[in-house]
Amino acid sequence: EYSQYLQVGSQDRAEVEATQIAGLPRMPSRGEAEAVTYLDPVMGDRVIFVDTEFALGFQISKRLVEDDQYGKANQNAKWLGRSTRLTQEYQASALLDDAFTGSFFTGLNGEALIATDHALLNSAGTGSNRLATDVQLGVTGLQAAYDLSESTVDETGDPIPIMPDTLVVNISDAWVAEQINKTSLEPFTSDNQINAITSRKGQLKTVVSHYKTQGSDWFLIDKSLSDAHFLFRVRPQFDDTMDFDTLVAKYWARQRINVFFYDWRGWIGSSP
Fold first, then answer.
1. Nearest to 225, CA basis, from 271, 168, 180, 268
2. Pairing state between β 52-61 and 47-50
């Protein structure tokens, strides 16, 4: 599931460094023969993200394999493969679970992914990607999320509207997401009026997260603008060996994963 809401790729070094440049504001007016105004770029802090290594193995005796009448012992390799995939999914969903608190995953200025008061590099104002009132997923809540996305600003405080295309929900909200997203008429009403959400914004890709533990949280994402990443430093590796003295077969798997974000833009969230 994680590839549907995170940017997936690889890193070829021990760590990832990120920084932000504020960019330029609007042009000032210029009189005839007047010198052009030059500004120095404003840069943010350099942040370093380091991967985490995961590994697990199992061992079975040669005697167990010889006496296994139903072929169950050799299925341990499949379980190891599933363990590898589960690790990826839970590591990715941990970013969702921590999105509103920032206890483990932080970006620029040490802030959580979702907040109402993101500091801006070149402006005294702040940016917000968290609903002012955290509400359950519904027509009103989704409209509020779209409105907030239209109010996204860059590091100088100028508008940079995002175009959400993905909705991440928990299992129990999947039905509501489908009812809102795939009807031409406004859901949950008896009036014959259009569904303004799909009419104006189009249909969203709905991703149901089976691994996040904060069940009521939901997210509206512009995947093209999102800076939340899932990078492999080492993709899953598998190996096995036979211990000569004990006649025990050992199997192991390992992988190195880096899940992080730096810029909060592209995400809107609600934690009812």
1. 268
2. unpaired
Q: Is the pLDDT of residue 192 over 60?
A: no
* Model pLDDT for residues 206-240, shown as the tens digit of each residue: 999 999 987 789 999 999 999 999 999 999 999 98
Structure tokens at 4: 């549907």
Distance in angstroms (rounded) separating the CA atoms of residues 115 and 132: 9
Long-range interactions of 189-192: CB distance < 8 A, separation 24+: none
Token pair 């060996």 is found at 241
Q: What is the pTM of this model?
A: 0.87
Q: Which of 254, 249, 265 is nearest to 73 (CA)?
A: 249
Separation of alpha carbons 147 and 164, rounded Å: 11
Residue pointed to by tokens 């999102």: 226
How does pLDDT run across 52-96, given as a tens digit for each residue?
Answer: 999 999 888 888 877 877 777 667 778 899 999 999 999 999 999
Place of tokens 């809540």: 141
Q: In whole angstroms, what is the distance from residue 233 CA to residue 67 CA?
A: 40
